[in-house]
Amino acid sequence: MPRLAELSGHNVLIVGGGDSAFDWALALEPLAKSITLVHRREKFRAHAATVARVQDLAVRIVVNAEITKIHGDERVTHADFTIKGGAGETIPVDTVVAALGFTADLGPLAEWGLDLDKRHIKVDSTMLTNRPRVFAAGDIAEYPGKVRLIATGFGEAATAVNNAAVTINPEAHLFPGTHPTRADRHRRFTFAL
């Protein structure tokens, strides 16, 4: 992954419409010669406030478009894209940032008898699924009010690991580094119910 300073003065093409695409646009806008963000749909998965910030900058945002070709030999020189129902366009490009998401594929997990919500596994506040001793965290986990951020996933992973540790070893502590009294342990389980 290039350092931001290495992209100073570049014509940058960002492909994608999620948080990482818009974060790249924000970070590169003061440095790049030009930024074009191309997304295949009109709706973005990025947070609305971040989208609004980028829209206020000198970033060209092209929606309902797909990259059809990237040109260059040793280095990228330009790229072609087509807007749905419209003509194609060629733009100068020195750097391409592919900030493309992915579609979750549950694979064999779909056969485990887990409660699913589309391609996500339903969990409770401890990250426990409907199956005993099976926890889920990150993009695959689903619960009411979920905000899909990397930071959320890190927090969910810590929650899942600590709750799994207590499930595996009831003498373990839910909060590492603490040594609760017997009464505290009772309260912890009362709250976890």
Describe the protein's architecture and organization.
The protein is α/β, with parallel strands linked by helices. The chain folds into 2 domains: 4-98, FAD/NAD(P)-binding domain; 112-188, FAD/NAD(P)-binding domain, CATH 3.50.50. The chain has helices at residues 19-28, 48-55, 150-168, 182-192; strands at 11-15, 34-38, 60-62, 65-72, 76-83, 88-92, 95-98, 116-117, 120-122, 141-142. The strands form 3 sheets. The chain has a 4-stranded parallel β-sheet with strand order 3-2-1-7, with helices on one face. Strands 4-5-6 form a 3-stranded antiparallel β-sheet, with no helix packed on it. Helix 1 (19-28) packs parallel to helix 2 (48-55). It is elongated, with a radius of gyration of 23 Å. It starts with 10 loop residues before the first strand and ends with a helix.
Sum up the structure in keywords:
single chain; 193 residues; alpha/beta; FAD/NAD(P)-binding domain; 2 domains; four-stranded parallel β-sheet; three-stranded antiparallel β-sheet; 4 helices; 10 strands; 25% helix; disordered C terminus
Summarize the topology.
Elements: E1 11-15, H1 19-28, E2 34-38, H2 48-55, E3 60-62, E4 65-72, E5 76-83, E6 88-92, E7 95-98, E8 116-117, E9 120-122, E10 141-142, H3 150-168, H4 182-192
Parallel strand pairs: 1-2, 1-7, 2-3, 9-10
Antiparallel strand pairs: 4-5, 5-6, 8-9
Organism: Phytohabitans suffuscus
GO molecular function: thioredoxin-disulfide reductase (NADPH) activity
Pfam family, one: Pyr_redox_2
The global form is: elongated
DSSP summary, beta strand count? 10
Q: What percentage of the residues does DSSP assign to strands (E)?
A: 15-25%
CATH architecture of the largest domain: 3-Layer(bba) Sandwich
Taken in chain order, the helices and strands follow as: EHEHEEEEEEEEHH
Helix share of residues? 10-25%
What's the tally of helices? 4
Please give the order of strands in the largest beta sheet. 3-2-1-7
Flag low-confidence runs: 183-193
Radius of gyration: 23 Å
Classified by CATH, the class of the largest domain is Alpha Beta
